[in-house]
Amino acid sequence: MKKMIAALFALFLLAGCGGLFQPMPTPDEDTIATQVAAILTTMPTATEDAGLQPTQPLPTIPPTETPLLPTETTEPTQVQPSPTEPPVQPTETPLPTPTATLQPTATIAFTPSPNDPVARLGPASWTDNMDKDNNWPMGSDKFTEISFSDGVMFLTGLTTTDGWRLTWPELTNFYLEMTFQTGNCNTNDRYGMIVRVPESRNPNRGYLAGLTCDGKVSLRRWDATVGAKGEMFNLIPWTAKSAVKAGANQTNRLGLMAIGDRLILYVNGELVGEARDNTFSKGYFGVFVGARDTEKFTIKVDQVRYWENPTP
């Protein structure tokens, strides 16, 4: 402080020297004291930190954003039902099963004529005189062999089991007649017609009207879909009839009238029996043969004809 006052005083002295050319009045002590006080007032006041070296400001670190790590979402805990009562599984409400309404089979009331149906039915709806083979499947299979010659069908049985060949069309109510000629035959060799076969490509059901070499007649119902070996049911059991011409090399006309559930048998124009059955209401028809007692028993079929919707 004293050094500063001395310096200031020297300045004034120099200023005074400059007044050699223009003399100035010499200040008194009070004036000098006042000026010194003013100078002292404008000087900065020393503080306690005056001797400390200023420190470098700390670098400002920008705040870093801490990324949030994905956290695994915890599935809500399934609350199990109380063990005191087992949970009830939902059940599907069954829809009512539609049931087919069975249509009653009409039983037509009439008395079968004992006379030959051909004599009163008029011209046939369809006739095959066997002049051609275009109405029948040709060749051999496991059960039968078929061929045509001189206006006749030759049908041979290859096993003791009845085998058949079908033709068309599908018939419902009809009178069907076939003319057969037997060759060499023995007691139980059989032949006849099969009718109302529901499926022509799978002919495993239908009615069989037949004759035997020894003069018996029958009407049977065959259904291969019943049981492991199928079912052959006798509607008319094998019964000897005088209307049948028994023995080898004989000619017989076998006829069946089917109207509704009524199945009426004729042999050579004579009524020989009747049965009622509604298992098969319509279907295809054909010829069958069974070589029961004679190896390769062969029949000749000379004519097949039918009348649709006949008058009983």
From TrEMBL:
SUPFAM superfamilies: Concanavalin A-like lectins/glucanases. Residues 126-284 form the 3-keto-alpha-glucoside-1,2-lyase/3-keto-2-hydroxy-glucal hydratase domain. Keywords: Signal. Residues 66-82 have a biased composition (Low complexity). The keyword Metal-binding does not apply. One of its GO terms (molecular function) is hydrolase activity. Pfam families: 3keto-disac_hyd. Residues 48-98 are annotated as: Disordered. The keyword Signal applies. Gene3D superfamilies: Exo-inulinase, domain 1. Residues 56-65, 83-97 have a biased composition (Pro residues). Residues 1-22 form the signal peptide. This is 3-keto-alpha-glucoside-1,2-lyase/3-keto-2-hydroxy-glucal hydratase domain-containing protein. It comes from Bellilinea caldifistulae.
